[in-house]
Structure formats: structure tokens, C-alpha cells
């Protein structure tokens, strides 16, 4: 298997302005993530993990340095263009699920395909929900589902657009051990079966260990954790 | 089905879109129903008043009406009729009587009906006919003076006519209010044969017109430039006439009410949009992470707004039409002529309200929504704060614009906008102080009281905003109620049930005694007798009136016609001195007339009295109480000037249904005395006032319902937070009673402050409106100070508790899960 570079980061710095002045969250980060790799980003709270994830996914624009996703730069792109790249390459799973409360489970999963104008959105969504074991809860609203079930819907939604990279920010943070395990299982299964690159922020050591690589974030700097 | 619509349909289920739609429907339907209703009322007043003129418009002339003018009327598809009025002697057997004769064409009257009877002094029935050629209808008074009855012959000039009916009321008679001789009506075809109209005789020709307003306006523009000195264009509601005043004030009120409805509608839309945006921020951020581009989101929301606008406007217009029909049908029993259909064009007002509301309240918020950074999903503190200042400014301008469109002017909207802005500042200041004070009184939240007061300060900004909304709505309510009762009381005071409805003119000094005993015998209330001399103002400060008003346009009533002058040593009953000295050797002028002619103390008027020119300075200005039983005079002169002129006397009487017949009969002994019956005009005014009072109450009711809905929307907008808090308190072990007490205190305090400030604001606004808009005397309204806080506490706590009853009854687990 030739391993292409999925993400390449050079000298990434990120500074935000808050009411107490400028705050540099990320201080010169360099890294590279290969296609189909699974990477865990660990580190103490407030060290800048979520910030990095957001920048890698093009949710925000970094202050300086370069991020290349499949050789396409995010920096210097309009929000319009970044959104298109996100829709094309990227999937998300969040700690707090972030399902649209007014949509049923199936409708939440259909969204990414619908945004692309895909006609088979519903069929695909049904198949995905089946895969995460929720084929009997299609028309339920998020508030009618447990946290674990909501996160499974979120995973189904994340894979609905066949993303090349899946970002997850503490996907098990709000779940008990059993549900957490189920979610991790799902993520890795899909990572393997579809060759999706997995970038995941976590506090869970067990989970981090399951990844191919672990990167440690500390005071805005990233180091590889030697195994 | 496109993505937009699928998203919309799904969103509809969540209720947020529905709230917005509901607010839009309320806005559009309130404005539509009030707009249409005002339109119908206006049309109805025009129609009612037209019956007093017997036409929609009238050309009055001392010369024969030119054939061209008639042709032009037919060209413009106007209905027309002609009337020729003249004073002539009528003979029957040995009796003769100077009388006022009107000859009319077939179409007369274009508006209203003749009231006739078959027996002397009967009360009359309506007829659409006019006298046939060879016939004449005479008033009972004329008949009794000539000692004739139905079927008898009377001679008019060279012809003789048969009395076919007894005339009770001629619909056009009120316009010739000073034609006070006994009246008769005949067919135009017989005029030539009478040979009474010869060059030099005093004849008044009228061309009556009715039809489409646009055509009437066109006709006016065409005909008035051709007028000579004697010709006048008459409209049903003439400036300065009391009925015009009444309708004018009612229109001001309805307009104001409508404007306030616009403001409330604006607030409702703003609240609903803000709620929509708040609840959709995270959703939009999520959609962005899923690859939705700003362009796509822009398209989606724009299409959603468009659909919302179309659905909301159509439903709003339909509902508005329906409500207006309901109001009209409730009122229809009171209307003597029935309400005219509303004009469909007026619907644009509702549609414009919908469109502008969407543009100013939804669009800016929505465009904000689209700008939210997708990072919010990871970093809640990266969430963009709404740039609320700009949004408030746009919203404010939107409401102002709507009010301008609605009132078709800038004065009222400007006054109201400044007032609202002032109140907003005031509310913010006072509220902040009060909430702060409330918190400092409550250290350690243990009782419901303390929790309630503390939460006021904790959610300072939303609570201040809510306080402002509550205050505005209660204030608007109080203002409307205040104006309503003011207006109605004012009208009733102006026109008491027993306002004088008859005037006796041409009474000689030696007849007074016997007339007094006749009226006393009938128990008819009568005013004092006033001597009366006729005179005409010819110059002002040595400038001739003709030079001042060469084409007679804008000529004040004081100069326009010959006036009745009187003298009096003391200022009469019902007159109040405004300035100057009444007993000085000079003129006393009625205030309104002086204002119209721009006269002040010291100005000199020259008056032509029986060929002599008298020049006098104005030494006093007084108001007259039109409701008093006195005949009222614009000008009162010193006794020394007038006492040598031959005078006759005038008095006013109130004659009710039962005394009418015996009164007319007894007056037959005084054939030279002229009786002017203004009862019809008065009755008309009283009917209109009755309608107006009812109409105003109904409109008020509608607006208050809209206001209650806005209050509900505003309580709902902070409901999530309250629910969350209540649930948390209960999870932490608080009893329902405690949570309820806290909510009660919070809402009660909000309501109390809102009511108090609203009372203050309403009092100020009422004073301003009384002085500047309604031109009535300013007065103080103590009841506001009671009602304001009472409404505030009562309504807001009940709405609040109703809306948040979930907090108290539902298990807290459900609530926390729902959030
Ligand atoms: N837009 C912003 N404005 C101000 N401060 C910010 C902003 N974004 C992030 N921060 C701050 O930067 C720091 C890093 O935030 P980040 O969310 O990346 O941490 P994290 O490593 O994900 O922490 P956790 O493990 O608790 O989620 C925090 O102190 C955060 O408050
Ligand atoms: Mg984080």
C-alpha cells in the first residue's frame, strides 16, 4: 500500500484575540498524517487540541504556517471553498454529538448527501444506520435517543459523505465505558473498511493506544509519543 | 422537492419556524384588519355625511350652472342632479307667506332620502321620489301658515301647484343652514312657468355630483379654476364644521391605534426572529462542518424567508380580512347606512408590512446566522455574538418606515419614535437600578422571594429587554384606553342629549313675551334671548378683505359671509374669557374663529352694518361651549355701537319628539318668526359618534389581543432559560412551591415596574397627544397609575406562569433532556 500524505502541517501558529489581549494557542506545529492512518492527539485540558483539530478541518483559518489537505491549502481560501473541501473530504464526530434537534435520526444522516444534491441520500442513510445498529430508530428525534445512540447516529452521519478523513473530538467523552467501547469499535471498523484516515482527540489512554500513532499536545506544541 | 423545502418542512415540526410564521401572520393580519376597517369607516363617514349634502360633491353658484359643466359630469360618468333654490311668496286662498323653495331634477337627492308624511306634523317616512310636475311638497309649518293641507292648491308666481306631500326633511337642507324660512320642494320642470326667476332675483343654483372619487377629483380640478366670485366647491365634511372635527379626531385615533399595532407587530417579529436565530446558530455551524457553503446557506435561508413571506402574507391578509369582516358585522347593527365594502387596494398595506418586517427584522438576523463560524461546534466561546446594536437600529428604522407608510406622514411616527427611544433609555436606567437594588436586598438565596429577585439581576440584559417590551405594550394599551375615554367623554360633553336643536330667528321685541309663555307651557327648555344685527367684515387693519383673499381661497369663515352680531353687557353663559377684557369698548371674538383668521388682541376690524362702517379693535377673545343652550356668536360688539340698529331676537330651544307637534302648531301664531331645525344634523352627529365609540372599542380590543400575543411571545423567548433553571432548582431539591414563588416574584416585579413606568410614559404621551394631535385640553389621568401596575402584575404573572407551567409540573428529568 502506497501511503499518500493526507495532511501536512508546517510551522503552524495560531493566535486569538480575547478581551485580555492576544493569546497564542498553537506555537509552531509540524506534522504529517498518512492516508488511512489513525492518529490520537492527547494532552492536558486547554493545551490546544480542539483548536488544532478545528484548523486541520478548515473550520477556522490559522494565523501563520501551512496546512495542506491532500495537497490543497486551507489557508488563504474563502469560507466558501473551505466548506466545499470539508464536504468533499472531511467527516466529524463531536463530544456533544451535535445532531440537529429538529431532525429525525435518518434525516440527520441524510444531510451530508443532501447537501451534495445526492438523490440516494435516504437509501444510503438507512444502510449506514443499519451498520451502526439503529435501523429500528430511524424516525426518532435526538432527544428520544440515549447519548450512546446519538453518538452512533453522529458517526453514521460522519461517514455518509464517504470522507477521506474523519475528525473526532473526544467522541467518548460523554459516554459510559460500555457505550464508549461500542463507539470506538465502530470508528475503527469504518476506518479499516473504508480506508478512512482517523484523527481523534481523546483523554482516554486505552483509546489512544489503539491508534497507530499518538501525538502529545503540551502548551501549544506537539510531540510524537514514542511507543 | 428541493433541499430548502425539505429543511423547512422539518424545521416546521420544531416550532421555531412556526413561531416566526405566527408573528408574521399576526403582524400582517393586525395591520390589514385595522387598515381595512379604518378605510370602511372613512367611506362610511363620507357616505353618512354625504346625506347631509345630498351628494358627494356640490357646486354652488349664484349664476345658472353652465351646460358644459353638466356635460363634463356625464363625460366623467358622474351622477348629477340640479337644485335651484329661491325665496318667494306663496299664496293660498287669502294667506301669503315668504318661503324657501327648492326646485329639483329627477335624480335628486343623489345621497340620502326625502322624509315626507301625509299628515301635518307627522314624523315622516323615506321616499326616493321627487314632486311630480304640477306638484309641490311643503313643510308642515308652511302648510299651517298658509292654512292648507294635502290636495290643496298653492300659487307660486304664475302657476299653481298641488300639495302632494308634507315635507319633513330635505336631505340637502343642512347645507343651507341659514335659509330659515318655511320650506317647500317642487319639480324643476315647473320653474320656468312660475316666472319668479327674473334677472336680479336672489337664486342659488346647485349642481350635485356623486360617483367615483377619482372622477370627482378630476372634476374638481377641472371646474374650480373656472369659478367666479359666487361659486363654491362643497364637500360633505367641511373644514371647521363640528362633524368634520369629530370624524377627524376619530380618524386620528384609529390611525394612532393602527400605528401602535404596527409597532407591536414589529416587536413581535423582532422577538420571533431573534428566537429563531438563537435556536439556529448551532445548527448552522453544524451544517457548515458538514460542508454547507455560505452561498448554499444564503440561498436556503433566503428561499425560506421568501416562502415564509408568501405563506405568512397570504394567511395574514386572509385572516385580517376575516377579522375586519367580523368587526364590521358586529358594528353593522349600529350603522344606519351600512358599512361600505372595503377597497381591495388597501390590502397592499398588510403585504407591505409583511415584506418590510421580513426585510428589517429577519434578513439582518438571518445574514448574521449565516456568518457564524463553524468553529463554534468545537469552541463554544468562538460563537459570534450578534451585533445587536446594528440590528436594533435597522429594526427601529424599519418600524419608523412602516409607521411613515402607514400614517402617510412623518409627524406622528417621529413623535412616537422619539418617545419610544426615550422610554427605552429610561427603562434601561431605572430597571438596572431596581434590579441591582433587588439583588443587594437578597444575600443568600433561600426563599422564593430572594431567588426571584436575584434572577432579575442575573439575567440583566434579557430582563431589561423584556421589561422594555412589557413597558411599551402596557404603555400603548394605557395610551389607547386613555385616548378612547378622553375622546368619548369629550364628544359626549360636546353634544349632550339635550343640545339645542331649534333656533328661533326674526323675533320682534314685542313677541318675546308670548313666545316665552308658549314654550313654558310646553316645558320646552329655552336659552336667553339675544338681540341680533347682521353685518359683514369688510376690512382688517385697514386692508380690505377682498385684497387679502382675492380669489377667496382660504378665506376665513369670519369674512366669508354676513355674520350675526350681538351685544351683551356681561359675557354670556357658556362663554369663557381667554384673554383681554370683555367689557372694554371693542370686539369680542370667538377663539377658533380668531385663530383661523389669524387675529389677536388689538387688531382692528371694519364691519359693514346696514350700510354704515364701524371700525373697532379686538379687546377680548373667548371660547364658547357648543354644548350650552345658548346661541353662539363669533363677534360680540359693545352695546353702544349696536343698540341703535333695528335688531331682532334669537333664542335656542330643545324640542323632543313629543313636544314637536304642539310646538310647531303654537308657532303658527307667529308667521314672521323663522324656525331653524338643526335636529337632523345633530342626530347625524350623534349617530356617528355612537358608531365611532363602538368602532374604537372594537379596534382597541383587537390591538390589545395582539399586544397580549406579543407579551406571550416575549415571555416564551426567555422560556428555555427559565425552564432550565427551574429544572435545575428542582433537581437540586427545591420544592415546586419554591420554584413557583421565585417565578411569581420575578414576573411580578417585572410586571410592576413595567406598569409603573408605562403609566408615567402614558401620562406624558397623553398630554402630548391631547395638546398637539387632538387639540383638546390637557388633563391628568390618576386611574392610569392604578391600572398600569395592576395590569402589569396581573397579566404578566399569569402569562408567565401559564407559559412556564411546564417548569412546575413536568418531572425535571424530561426538561433537562429536552433542552
Ligand atoms: N476564540 C478563542 N478566544 C479566546 N480563547 C480561545 C479561543 N479559542 C481557544 N481559546 C483558548 O485556547 C485554549 C485552548 O483551547 P482548546 O479548546 O483548543 O483546548 P483543548 O486542548 O481542546 O482543551 P479540552 O481538553 O479541555 O477540550 C483554551 O484556554 C481556550 O480557552
Ligand atoms: Mg477540546
Task: Describe, in short, the structure shown.
Helices cover 34% and strands 30% of the residues of chain A. Chain A is built from 7 helices and 10 strands.
Give a verbal description of the structure:
Chain A has 7 helices and 10 strands. Chain A is α/β, with parallel strands linked by helices and about 230 residues long. Chain A has one domain: 3-Layer(aba) Sandwich (Rossmann fold), CATH 3.40.50.300. A 6-stranded mixed sheet of chain A has the order 6-7-8-3-9-10, sandwiched between helices. Chain A has a 4-stranded antiparallel sheet with strand order 2-1-4-5, covered by helices on one side. In chain A, about 50% of the residues are buried. The model of chain A has no long low-confidence stretch (mean pLDDT about 90). With about 800 residues, chain B is an alpha+beta fold. In chain B, the strands form 2 sheets. Chain B has a 6-stranded mixed β-barrel. The longest helix of chain B has about 50 residues, at about 240-290. Chain B is elongated, with a radius of gyration of 34 Å. Residues about 175-180 of chain B have low confidence and may be disordered. Adenosine-5'-triphosphate sits at the interface of chains A and B.
Amino acid at each position: 500500500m502506497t501511503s499518500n500524505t493526507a495532511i501536512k502541517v508546517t510551522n503552524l501558529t495560531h493566535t486569538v484575540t480575547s478581551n485580555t489581549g492576544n493569546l497564542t494557542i498553537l506555537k509552531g506545529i509540524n506534522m504529517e498524517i498518512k492516508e488511512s492512518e489513525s492518529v490520537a492527539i492527547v494532552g492536558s485540558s486547554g493545551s490546544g487540541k480542539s483548536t488544532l483539530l478545528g484548523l486541520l478541518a478548515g473550520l477556522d483559518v490559522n494565523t501563520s504556517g501551512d496546512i495542506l489537505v491532500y495537497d490543497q491549502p486551507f489557508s488563504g481560501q474563502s469560507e466558501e471553498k473551505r466548506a466545499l473541501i470539508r464536504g468533499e473530504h472531511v467527516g466529524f464526530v463531536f463530544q456533544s454529538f451535535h445532531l440537529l434537534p429538529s431532525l429525525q435520526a435518518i434525516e440527520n444522516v441524510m444531510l451530508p448527501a443532501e447537501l451534495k444534491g445526492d438523490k440516494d441520500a435516504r437509501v444510503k442513510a438507512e444502510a449506514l444506520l443499519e451498520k451502526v445498529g439503529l435501523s429500528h430508530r430511524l424516525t426518532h428525534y435526538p432527544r428520544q435517543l440515549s447519548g450512546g445512540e446519538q453518538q452512533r447516529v453522529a458517526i453514521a452521519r460522519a461517514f455518509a459523505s464517504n470522507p477521506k478523513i474523519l475528525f473526532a473530538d473526544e467522541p467518548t467523552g460523554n459516554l459510559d465505558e460500555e457505550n464508549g467501547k461500542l463507539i470506538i469499535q465502530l470508528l475503527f471498523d469504518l476506518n479499516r473498511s473504508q480506508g478512512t484516515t482517523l484523527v481523534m482527540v481523546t483523554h482516554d489512554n486505552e483509546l489512544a493506544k489503539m491508534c497507530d500513532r499518538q501525538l502529545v499536545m503540551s502548551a501549544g506544541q506537539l510531540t510524537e509519543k514514542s511507543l | 422537492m428541493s433541499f430548502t423545502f425539505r429543511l423547512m418542512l422539518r424545521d416546521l415540526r420544531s416550532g421555531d419556524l412556526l413561531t416566526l410564521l405566527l408573528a408574521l401572520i399576526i403582524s400582517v393580519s393586525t395591520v390589514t384588519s385595522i387598515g381595512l376597517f379604518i378605510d370602511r369607516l372613512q367611506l362610511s363617514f363620507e357616505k353618512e355625511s354625504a346625506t347631509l349634502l345630498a351628494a358627494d360633491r356640490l357646486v354652488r353658484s349664484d349664476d345658472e350652472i353652465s351646460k358644459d359643466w353638466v356635460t363634463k359630469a356625464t363625460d366623467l360618468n358622474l351622477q348629477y342632479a340640479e337644485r335651484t333654490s329661491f325665496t318667494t311668496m306663496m299664496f293660498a286662498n287669502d294667506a301669503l307667506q315668504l318661503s324657501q323653495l327648492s326646485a329639483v331634477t329627477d335624480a335628486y337627492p343623489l345621497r340620502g332620502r326625502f322624509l315626507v308624511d301625509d299628515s301635518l306634523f307627522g314624523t315622516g317616512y323615506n321616499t326616493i321620489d321627487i314632486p311630480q310636475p304640477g306638484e309641490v311638497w311643503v313643510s308642515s309649518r308652511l302648510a299651517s301658515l298658509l292654512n292648507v293641507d294635502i290636495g290643496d292648491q298653492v300659487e307660486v308666481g304664475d302657476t299653481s301647484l298641488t300639495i302632494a306631500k308634507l315635507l319633513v326633511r330635505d336631505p340637502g337642507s343642512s347645507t343651507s343652514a341659514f335659509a330659515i324660512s318655511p320650506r317647500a320642494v317642487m319639480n324643476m320642470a315647473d320653474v320656468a312657468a312660475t316666472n319668479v326667476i327674473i334677472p336680479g332675483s336672489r337664486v342659488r343654483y346647485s349642481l350635485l355630483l356623486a360617483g367615483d372619487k377619482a372622477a370627482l377629483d378630476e372634476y374638481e380640478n377641472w371646474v374650480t379654476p373656472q369659478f367666479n366670485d359666487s361659486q363654491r366647491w362643497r364637500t360633505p365634511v367641511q373644514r371647521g364644521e363640528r362633524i368634520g372635527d369629530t370624524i377627524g379626531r376619530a380618524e386620528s385615533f384609529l390611525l394612532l391605534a393602527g400605528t401602535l399595532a404596527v409597532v407591536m407587530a414589529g416587536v413581535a417579529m423582532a422577538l420571533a426572529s431573534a428566537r429563531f436565530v438563537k435556536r439556529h446558530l448551532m445548527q448552522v455551524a453544524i451544517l457548515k462542518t458538514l460542508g454547507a457553503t455560505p452561498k448554499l446557506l444564503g440561498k436556503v435561508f433566503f428561499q425560506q424567508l421568501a416562502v415564509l413571506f408568501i405563506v405568512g402574507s397570504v394567511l395574514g391578509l386572509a385572516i385580517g380580512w376575516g377579522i375586519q369582516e367580523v368587526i364590521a358585522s358586529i358594528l353593522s347593527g349600529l350603522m344606519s347606512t351600512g358599512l361600505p365594502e372595503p377597497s381591495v387596494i388597501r390590502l397592499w398595506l398588510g403585504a407591505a408590512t409583511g415584506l418590510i418586517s421580513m426585510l428589517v427584522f429577519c434578513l439582518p438576523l438571518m445574514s448574521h446566522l449565516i456568518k457564524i463560524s463553524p468553529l463554534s461546534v468545537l469552541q463554544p466561546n468562538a460563537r459570534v455574538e450578534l451585533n445587536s446594536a446594528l440590528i436594533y437600529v435597522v429594526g427601529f428604522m424599519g418600524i419608523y418606515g412602516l409607521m411613515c407608510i402607514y400614517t402617510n406622514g412623518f409627524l406622528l411616527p417621529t413623535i412616537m419614535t422619539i418617545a419610544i427611544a426615550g422610554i427605552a433609555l429610561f427603562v434601561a436606567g431605572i430597571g438596572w437600578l431596581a434590579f441591582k437594588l433587588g439583588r443587594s436586598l437578597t444575600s443568600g438565596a433561600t426563599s422564593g422571594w430572594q431567588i426571584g429577585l436575584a434572577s432579575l439581576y442575573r439575567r440583566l440584559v434579557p430582563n431589561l429587554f423584556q421589561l422594555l417590551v412589557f413597558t411599551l405594550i402596557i404603555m400603548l394599551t394605557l395610551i389607547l384606553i386613555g385616548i378612547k375615554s378622553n375622546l368619548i367623554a369629550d364628544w359626549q360633553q360636546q353634544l349632550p342629549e339635550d343640545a339645542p336643536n331649534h333656533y328661533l330667528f326674526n323675533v320682534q321685541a314685542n313677541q318675546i313675551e308670548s313666545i316665552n309663555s308658549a314654550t313654558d307651557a310646553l316645558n320646552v327648555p329655552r336659552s336667553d334671548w339675544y338681540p341680533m344685527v347682521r353685518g359683514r367684515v369688510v376690512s382688517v387693519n385697514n386692508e380690505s378683505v377682498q385684497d387679502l383673499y382675492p380669489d377667496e381661497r382660504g378665506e376665513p369663515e369670519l369674512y366669508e359671509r354676513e355674520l350675526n352680531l350681538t351685544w351683551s353687557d356681561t359675557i354670556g353663559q357658556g362663554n369663557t374669557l381667554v384673554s383681554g377684557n370683555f367689557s372694554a369698548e371693542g370686539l369680542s371674538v370667538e377663539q377658533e374663529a380668531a385663530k383661523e383668521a389669524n387675529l389677536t388682541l388689538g387688531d382692528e376690524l371694519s364691519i359693514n352694518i346696514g350700510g354704515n362702517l364701524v371700525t373697532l379693535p379686538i379687546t377680548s377673545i373667548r371660547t364658547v361651549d357648543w354644548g350650552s343652550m345658548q346661541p353662539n356668536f363669533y363677534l360680540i360688539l359693545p352695546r353702544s355701537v349696536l343698540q341703535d340698529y333695528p335688531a331682532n331676537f334669537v333664542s335656542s330651544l330643545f324640542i323632543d319628539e313629543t313636544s314637536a307637534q304642539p310646538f310647531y302648531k303654537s308657532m303658527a301664531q307667529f308667521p314672521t318668526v323663522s324656525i331653524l331645525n338643526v335636529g337632523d344634523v345633530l342626530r347625524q352627529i350623534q349617530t356617528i359618534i355612537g358608531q365611532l365609540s363602538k368602532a374604537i372599542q372594537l379596534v382597541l380590543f383587537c390591538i390589545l389581543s395582539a399586544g397580549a400575543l406579543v407579551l406571550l411571545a416575549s415571555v416564551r423567548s426567555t422560556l428555555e432559560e427559565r425552564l432550565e433553571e427551574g429544572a435545575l432548582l428542582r433537581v437540586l431539591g427545591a420544592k415546586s412551591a419554591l420554584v413557583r414563588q421565585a417565578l411569581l416574584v420575578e414576573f411580578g416585579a417585572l410586571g410592576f415596574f413595567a406598569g409603573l413606568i408605562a403609566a408615567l410614559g402614558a401620562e406624558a404621551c397623553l398630554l402630548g397627544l391631547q395638546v398637539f394631535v387632538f387639540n383638546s385640553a390637557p388633563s391628568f389621568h390618576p386611574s392610569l397609575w392604578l391600572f398600569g401596575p395592576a395590569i402589569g402584575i396581573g397579566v404578566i404573572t399569569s402569562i408567565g406562569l401559564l407559559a412556564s407551567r411546564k417548569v412546575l409540573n413536568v418531572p425535571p428529568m424530561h426538561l433537562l433532556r429536552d433542552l
